[in-house]
Every structure is written in C-alpha cells, then in structure tokens.
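Quick question, first post here. What does this chain look like in 3D?
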Amino acid sequence: MEFAGSELIRAQREEVFDFITDARHFSSGIPDIQSVRVLSPDRFSVTAKLGISVIRSTFDIDFEASEKTAPSHVKLFGHGISGGSAIDLETTIDLEDQGPGTILKWIAVVRVSGTLAALGRRVLSAVADRFVKEVFGKIRAELETPATQI
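> Answer (accepted):
Ran it through. Tokens below.
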C-alpha cells in the first residue's frame, strides 16, 4: 500500500530536517508508542502497539535512515515483527521552503503480512492511511508549538 501527502509546517526547513532525523522527535508521532531506543544517529528501534480493533499486537520495529541530504531529503526504512504478523515501512520525506515555513512532502509504502494482512486490503489500507497521516500531523503539531514557532 502506498500513501502520499504533504504538510505545511510553520518552521524553517533546517529545523524540520533536524526534527525528523532525530529518532526521539520523529518517533513521538507514532501512535501508541511505548519506548524508543536510539542505536546510532541513523538507527533506532521503537516498541509500539499496532493493529485493528481487537487484533492488536506489540511490535518492535527497527528503523534506519538513509539517503540523508540536509536539509531537504531523507528516506526511512522500518521492519517489525510480532507473533504472526510483520510490517515493513519505507518512507521518503522531501522538504521545500514555503514562505516563512516548510512544505514536508512524504510518500509511505507499507507492507503487512500475516494475521493483520488477513483482515483484508480495504480495512487495512484505511487504517494504515490514517496511521501515516497521524504520524506526520503530530510532527507538524510538535514543530508548531510556541517554543519552536517562527
């Protein structure tokens, strides 16, 4: 499943880039996150509860940032497993100056297998779309708090 979108963020591009390439900040947007472990500047792991309705499981997801071109581009890969399910994420983020703010454009490719995938593509697609939009919406909201606002 592939999803794309953009967010206008009222913060300078360098600040947005620093935020999204910092594991603790980026992961703050992940719903139901339980913990974050920074392994290196480009690698981190999160524990999060993911799923649909009563079919939820705690996933340990390992992330790695690559193709980092400050302050305009980063690609993030994630892989996690839990019980009978697996999730793979590939997210490309591009940043562009827009007046006093930044346009954050993203493309997320989500692949799910196992028990969660058995729920059906339409249901899973809607949940994954909402999840990805929530991550980037929370990042925007965090960057636009009064302490970081332009």
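The two ends are 35 Å apart (CA to CA).
The chain has one domain: 2-143.
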